[in-house]
Specification:
The chain is an all-alpha fold and 299 residues long. The chain has a single domain (2-46, 56-294), classed as ADP-ribosylglycohydrolase fold, CATH 1.10.4080.10. 64% of the residues lie in helices and 0% in strands. It contains 15 helices and no strands. It has helices spanning 2-23, 31-38, 59-74, 79-91, 99-111, 132-137, 142-154, 160-177, 182-195, 212-225, 229-237, 243-258, 265-270, 273-289, 291-297. Helix 7 (142-154) packs across helix 8 (160-177). Bound molecules: manganese (II) ion (2 copies). One manganese (II) ion binds next to helix 3 and helix 12.
C-alpha cells in the first residue's frame, strides 16, 4: 500500500515531465499541421517553436521542481521559499516563461508580496501546471491541500477559474494517488462543473489554448476517453495549442492513475537525466513530509 502510493507519486511527477517534453514539440501548432508533419506525434523528438532537445522539459516542469525544492529545503510548506525559487529561476533565463507568471514574479521582486491582486486576465493555466508537488506534499489533509493550492497559485494567478481548476485537479490527483477509479474521478469533475459550467467537456470542441478552461477540458476529454497513460498523452499533445502544458497536466493525472508501470520506457529513457534524477530524489521527500506519512509513522 505504502509502496503503491510511492510509485504512483513518482509516476505523477514523471508523467508531468514526460507530457511537458512530449508536448513541447507541438506547442502552438493545430491538429492539421501536426498531422501533416508527423502523422501522429508520439516520440520525444524535441523541436517545436522553442527548439528543445529530445526529452528536454520547459517551464511547466521547472516551476514544479522549484516548488518541490523549496518544500524539501524548508522541511515543509514555505511560500516565501517558493517565491524565491521562482525568482531565481526567472533570473536564470528559462527557455520559456508565461506572461502572467513573469508578471507575478516581478510583482514579488518589486513588492515582496506573496499574492497577486485578483485580475480578470489571469485565467491562464500557469498555476494549474505546477500542482504535482502540492498534491503529493499535502496528502492526508484536505485543508492543507486547499491552502497550499491557493497560496502557490496566487503567487502568479489570482482568478476564480484558475483557483477552481487547481483545487479540482488537486483533489483528483490525490484521489488517483490513493487508488480511486475513473468513476470517482469523473464525479469530481461533475462537482467542478456544477459550480462552474464553463468546464463542461462533453461535446469537446477541440480548443486546447492556455486558457485554464480550454486546458482542463482538453485534459479531461482525453483522460476519460482513453484507456492508458500513453494513449491519453498522445491524444492531448496531438491536439496542439498549449500542448506542453496540457501534456504536463494530463501526465500528472494519468501518471497518478495508471501508475509507474504505465509510463512508456522509450519515453523515460529519453527524458532529461537531471530532471529524472531530481524527481526521484524529491518525490520521497515530499511524501515523507506529508500529513499522511507523518500520521502513519507517528508513535
Ligand atoms: Mn512550457
Ligand atoms: Mn505551455
Amino acid at each position: 500500500m505504502a509502496d503503491d502510493l510511492r510509485q504512483r507519486a513518482r509516476a505523477s511527477f514523471l508523467g508531468l515531465a514526460l507530457g511537458d517534453a512530449l508536448g513541447a514539440t507541438t506547442e502552438f501548432m493545430n491538429p492539421a499541421e501536426i498531422r501533416a508533419q508527423y502523422r501522429v506525434h508520439k516520440k520525444l523528438r524535441g523541436g517545436g517553436w522553442l527548439g528543445v532537445k529530445p526529452g528536454q522539459v520547459t517551464d511547466d516542469t521547472e516551476m514544479s521542481l522549484a516548488i518541490a525544492q523549496a518544500i524539501n529545503r524548508a522541511d515543509g510548506w514555505d511560500l516565501a521559499g517558493i517565491a524565491e525559487n521562482f525568482l531565481a529561476w526567472m533570473r536564470a533565463k528559462p527557455i520559456d516563461i508565461g506572461a502572467t507568471v513573469r508578471k507575478g514574479i516581478v510583482h514579488y521582486r518589486r513588492t515582496g508580496s506573496l499574492a497577486m491582486p485578483p485580475n480578470e486576465w489571469d485565467a491562464g493555466n500557469g498555476a494549474l501546471m505546477r500542482m504535482a508537488p502540492v498534491c503529493i506534499f499535502s496528502l492526508g489533509d484536505p485543508e492543507l491541500l486547499r491552502r497550499c493550492t491557493l497560496e502557490q497559485a496566487h503567487l502568479t494567478h489570482n482568478h476564480p477559474l484558475s483557483d477552481a481548476a487547481c483545487l479540482c485537479l488537486g483533489v483528483m490527483v490525490q484521489a488517483a494517488l490513493q487508488g480511486a477509479d475513473r468513476f470517482e474521478l469523473h464525479g469530481m469533475t461533475r462537482e467542478l462543473i456544477a459550480a462552474y459550467p464553463n468546464f463542461r467537456f462533453n461535446n469537446y470542441r477541440g480548443l486546447a489554448s492556455g486558457y485554464v478552461v480550454d486546458t482542463l477540458q482538453t485534459v479531461f476529454h482525453y483522460f476519460f476517453s482513453t484507456a492508458s497513460f500513453e494513449e491519453c498523452l498522445i491524444g492531448v499533445v496531438n491536439q496542439g495549442g498549449d500542448a506542453d502544458t496540457t501534456g504536463a497536466i494530463a501526465g500528472m493525472l494519468g501518471g497518478a492513475f495508471y501508475g509507474v508501470e504505465s509510463l512508456p520506457t522509450r519515453w523515460l529513457r529519453k527524458l532529461d537525466k537531471k530532471v529524472h534524477h531530481e524527481i526521484d530524489l524529491l518525490v520521497p521527500r515530499l511524501l515523507a513530509l506529508s500529513p499522511l506519512q507523518k500520521k502513519g509513522t507517528a508513535p
